[in-house]
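It is worth pausing here to work through a concrete case rather than discussing structure prediction in the abstract. The textbook approach is simple: state the sequence, then state the predicted structure, then interpret. We follow exactly that order.
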Amino acid sequence: MAGTLILGVGTPLAGDDAVGILAVEELRKRADLPPGVDVIDGGTEGLGLIPVMEQYRRVIVVDAVPMGLPPGTIRRFTWQEVRPVTGARPLSLHQTGLTDALILAETLGSLPAEVVIYGVQPHNMEQDTLQTVIEWDRPLSEPVQRALPALIETLVNEVTLAMAQKILIVDDDPDVVLAARMPLEAAGYEVHAAGTQAAALEAVDSVKPNLIILDVMMDTHTAGFQLAQKLHGPTAPEDHKTIPILMVTAIHQTTPLRFGPDDDYLPVEAFIDKPIDPKALIEKVGELLGG
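Step two, the predicted structure:
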């Protein structure tokens, strides 16, 4: 499965509705996109985008999105934030049927592990209905044209930041390490691994990870707890305390024991259960890294 797709959608020569298409045209000219990042003009394919998106772990959609904001405003959303909920009015993701495509992909189990939407507020919008008014054979409005360079830089930063983020997996089970490594690398993260407490402490100093994924049981049943204390406890180095820890465990699945992050006993930021769900892992990592 491929890494990251930047997907521009919209209608060429239709005023602000073309902003997604023009954005990917400019991105194709950039020489500083990281490896593993593809850029595609999705046009108005709608449901036809499903077989394109399902090839990737991460998809970044760029589109004109009526949000009731000043024209040219850029906003970043995750699919979870804009996904229609029963009884709620969804954010309009373009009249091409993009929302329908994402819902169907989710239903079919082919939705990428991470979907991000960059919306640009169009100028040509009906205020009462928050719907884009298509203006055929028109250029971008002045506000959206001014926003285009910032949109390009934001997209480049989005994919570059993910490539620059380092994640250290601390687990003595090669299968678990592989299960976590594959979706993380596909999403653009640099992944390192350690199988013991000692190796992990060395890697923290040499790799300087942005996030640690930590197993509970390794060489001992409490190795993960002990390492969390060494990294985030009262006597831990200050630069170690700033590294978020995501603890991975099967204890919740195999025993009646229940525990969670605790500043004194278990100083970690979050938990995720085994077996690792790639989509949940990518989402949780993104949250902890501020994505």
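Step three, interpretation. Residues 86-90, 126-130 have pLDDT under 50 and may be disordered. The CA atoms of residues 71 and 123 lie 5 Å apart.
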